[in-house]
UniProtKB/TrEMBL annotation:
Residues 582-591 have a biased composition (Low complexity). It comes from Salinarimonas ramus. InterPro entries: ATP-dep_Glu-Cys_Ligase-2, CP_ATPgrasp_2, DUF403. Residues 94-465 form the Circularly permuted ATP-grasp type domain. This is DUF403 domain-containing protein. PANTHER family: BLR2978 PROTEIN (PTHR34595:SF2), BLR5612 PROTEIN (PTHR34595). Residues 570-591 are annotated as: Disordered. It holds the Pfam family CP_ATPgrasp_2. Residues 510-824 form the DUF403 domain. Residues 570-579 have a biased composition (Acidic residues).
Length: 840
């Protein structure tokens, strides 16, 4: 692309006056859009040239597409201490860096990664610290320094597989290191999502601007992780803290994109110097763990006993060389602020090079002379914990008591405090209310270790502060994240991680935890649907004007069924306190619509629709790497809704409308599962959960509404609840009769809602799932499923009574327990009888 003259660039920017009108860099801060000479920087001139033809409507549609993508895919993060996820805040404009400037950044990041690797090797060698090394207190004072790992050589020869560094551009235009990330660097997955989002905002623009692609970096990262294993085709897993992690979505994104199993500590077992992942096929050896769990939480036996996230015995397996961990536990010891002031000297000592990317000037108060200097500069520095990633506080802004407390802390425990120069960060344009405004930002860049050296991601992600205050210490976490575009001088080749050979038609091994959550996701969804059908029947009875007093036997049976399922908790059902001399008279029985509303909305009732949906969402939250965006959206947005007004709170029409809307959602989810999921082990377990819960519901509803002496209203309600009304009417010319209704609901093998249909499908799934032993004998789950299917195939509708139904219900419950015992063992000591000789 031919370089623009300054006049041409100015004309282009003026052509976008609807954006830049009133745009002015902050005083004393560098700006990414406007250079020191007042002219647009070349990279932004290229963007302005490409965006010139776009109308405000085009931009609005692009921005709307980006926001829809974030919402539909469910891109999210969680702030520490909060229970709910937040939508990922993506800026509508990228950060632009040209190829020449990026080369300097990349070279500096590689040098810093090499320095961190050399420093970690020295710290963990077990040898006395050489002359010129950082003070011991600046290292061992860190909670990330793990003494049990000293002297343990890292499998694969590296402590770091992934390194990240936070950068900021100072007023002089130079890039400065704000912090190092060596523990378990986060954000690479969000950088990938940011790129996808902006590709929707500006379709085709990245190719025209020759934006360097991210796929080669992720391919190098995957190859580097695989190189740490000893086998020719090592199994690499991503170890996650679980769905309550602040960045769980990102972890699921990376696992899906790189084709890695996402495993939690409970999925793994360490034994005989190796680590295995529990799967429905038995124990399978895992060679490399890319961890996102803090190092001290990796093993409750050797490290922090409070951990519930790690794997007991993991450090022993690491010492034996049976597993490689990236990054090596203990690698976080060099990312502390306490070491930043020593980095320039360490670079000269360990690499014999000058530090290319300078740090923010840092005073570690563990040294007497430095401590006094920091105290003398109290009003010009920001102070923070030397070993904690918390926020800084400006000495000049402290009141007298806080200032005295800080001075006392520095003098008594100076090793825990650092002072840092207050750096004014560069600003970047942000879209606000139809125009551009400058906001300060920091840039996170990643480097992956590979057999061929360090590979730097051509981009990264930026965090942008909401406030215009450009001091790095006040930026915090920022409120926006921006994609980073590195503009190449030459056309950029298309690169993808999609494999070009080795076609496979089998999925990887399914971890037991994922299997457990899939099974229960199916159960909770089906349980919620069954209760919703009972709610609809109750609301419809009220809406049709049927009597809802004690004389209406059908309504009473439906209410009793709702109570038996735990969907309703009434005060009148509580046991009376025998110590009371008198008991207050019970209130009159609530109308059917009130019972229906409670069964729909009451979160305190364990069997209510609202409670079952909450449990379904919780199970789905553990499956972000396995659910499609459409499936996740349907489940996460599932809700019984709320009445539109106070008048509609108990209105049967409102309850019925909400129940019917929910049934449509359940049908959409069932259709998605049936039509879009491949017939893998995960799909079978999800479907088995649905079938077991549907079978239990059919037994309970039939027992309540189709017993001997059932009225026509009872049978009619049963047909509604099991969704067989139309089938019955087309099959029989007479009204509902007990035996035909029971046959249709329980024994018709062609009815997808009958009990026998569920039993046959469960038996088929059990037979298709992996076996632990190849001795030709049926496993307990197959025996139970076969017995139930056989009994149902020879049953007669006329002979079915309450005892028979109770027996079948107990058989289903036993089968569910057997499935759990066979496929979902949990806990550090839980082991299935897998053949040790067959562990693969």
């Amino acid at each position: 692309m031919t370089a623009l003259t300054r006049a041409q660039a100015r004309d282009l920017i003026q052509g976008l006056s609807r954006w830049t009108e009133g745009y002015a860099p902050l005083p004393g801060a560098s700006d990414e859009l406007i250079g020191p000479d007042g002219a647009p920087r070349p990279a932004w001139s290229r963007l302005a040239e490409a965006l010139g033809p776009m109308s405000p409507g085009d931009l609005a549609r692009g921005f709307g597409s980006a926001e829809r993508h974030v919402r539909e895919v469910g891109i999210s993060y969680r702030v520490h201490g909060e229970a709910a996820d937040r939508a990922w805040p993506v800026a509508h404009l990228p950060i632009l860096i040209d190829a020449a400037e990026w080369k300097g950044i990349a070279d500096g990041v590689v040098q810093r990664a090499r320095l961190m690797e050399a420093l970690l090797a020295e710290i963990h060698s077990g040898s006395p610290a050489p002359k010129g090394a950082p003070p011991a207190a600046a290292i061992v004072g860190s909670p990330n320094y793990l003494r049990p790992l000293v002297g343990v050589p890292p499998p694969g020869g590296r402590h770091l597989a992934l390194y990240a560094v936070d950068l900021g551009r100072g007023p002089d235009g130079r890039w400065w290191v704000l912090s190092d990330r060596t523990q378990a660097p986060s954000g690479a997955g969000y950088a990938l999502e940011n790129r996808i989002v902006l590709s929707r905002v500006y379709p085709g623009l990245m190719e025209r601007l020759r934006v360097q692609r991210l796929a080669p970096f992720f391919g190098a990262l995957r190859d580097g992780l695989a190189a740490l294993g000893r086998r020719e085709e090592p199994r690499v897993g991503l170890l996650t803290p679980g769905p309550f992690s602040e960045t769980y979505f990102e972890q699921a994104t990376l696992a899906r994109y790189l084709g890695l199993p996402l495993v939690e500590g409970d999925d793994l077992v360490a034994r005989d110097g190796s680590v295995y992942v529990r799967t429905v096929s038995g124990l399978k050896r895992i060679d490399v763990l890319w961890r996102r769990v803090d190092g001290d939480y990796c093993d409750p036996l050797a490290l922090d006993a409070r951990s519930r996230l790690g794997v007991p015995g993991l450090v022993a397996a690491l010492r034996a060389g049976g597993v490689a961990i990236a990054n090596m536990p203990g690698s976080g010891a060099v990312e502390q602020r306490a070491l930043m002031g020593f980095m320039a000297a360490q670079c000269r000592r360990l690499l014999d090079e000058e530090l290319a990317l300078p740090n923010i000037a840092t005073w570690w108060c563990g040294e007497p002379g430095v401590r006094e200097e920091a105290l003398a500069r109290l009003d010009t520095l920001a102070f923070a914990d030397a070993f904690d990633g918390g926020c800084s506080e400006l000495g000049a802004e402290l009141d007298e008591p806080a200032r005295a407390e800080l001075e006392a802390r520095i003098r008594t425990r100076g090793i825990d405090v650092v002072g840092q120069e207050i750096v004014r960060l560069s600003t970047t344009p942000v879209w606000r209310d139809g125009r551009l405004v400058p906001r300060p930002f920091s840039l996170r860049v990643y480097a992956a270790a590979t057999p061929d050296g360090w590979h730097v991601m051509p981009g990264g992600f930026a965090r942008i502060a909401e406030r215009p205050d450009a001091r790095a210490v006040t930026m915090g976490e920022g409120t926006l994240s921006a994609d980073v575009w590195v503009l190449a001088d030459q056309p950029v080749a298309r690169v993808t991680l999609v494999p070009q050979e080795r076609i496979r038609r089998v999925a990887g091994h399914l971890p037991s935890r994922a299997a457990d959550n899939l099974f229960w996701l199916g159960r909770y969804l089906e349980r919620a649907e069954a209760t919703t059908r009972i709610v609809a029947a109750l609301a419809e009875a009220r809406l049709d004007g049927a009597a809802v007093g004690p004389g209406d036997e059908t309504v009473e049976r439906l209410e009793g069924l709702a109570r038996a399922l735990g969907a309703v908790v009434d005060p009148e059902d509580d046991e009376e306190d025998e110590t009371k001399e008198a008991v207050a008279p019970r209130p009159a029985r609530a109308p059917a619509s009130d019972i229906a509303r409670a069964a729909l909305d009451d979160p305190a009732a364990p069997g209510s629709v609202a409670c079952s949906i909450a449990f379904a969402r919780r199970a789905a939250s553990h499956l972000r790497d396995r659910l499609s965006p459409e499936a996740w959206r349907l489940v996460s947005e599932l809700s019984p809704g709320t009445p539109a007004s106070e008048e509609e709170v108990a209105a049967p029409a409102d309850v019925l409308d909400r129940a019917r809307a929910l049934l449509e959602r359940f049908a959409a989810i069932a259709g998605l599962v049936h039509e879009n999921m491949t017939r893998s082990d995960g799909w079978r377990l999800l479907d088995m959960g649905r079938r077991i819960e549907r079978g239990l519901a059919v037994c309970r509803v039939t027992g309540a509404l189709a017993a001997d002496g059932a009225t026509g209203g009872d049978l009619d309600a049963l047909l509604d609840v099991v969704d067989c009304q139309i089938t019955y009417r087309t099959r029989y010319l007479f009204g509902p009769a007990p035996a035909p209704v029971r046959d249709l609901a329980l024994l018709d093998p062609d009815n997808p809602r009958s009990l026998v249909f569920q039993a046959e499908r469960i038996l088929g799934h059990v037979r298709a799932l992996p076996r632990l032993h190849e001795d030709g004998l049926p496993e307990p789950t197959e025996r139970l499923a076969s017995a139930l299917a056989r009994d149902l195939s020879i049953a007669e509708a006329a002979a079915i009574d309450g005892a028979v139904l109770a027996g079948w219900e107990a058989d289903l419950a036993d089968l569910a327990d057997a499935i759990g015992m066979r496929y979902f063992p949990h806990g550090a000591a839980a082991e299935r009888p897998a053949k040790l000789s067959g562990l693969a």
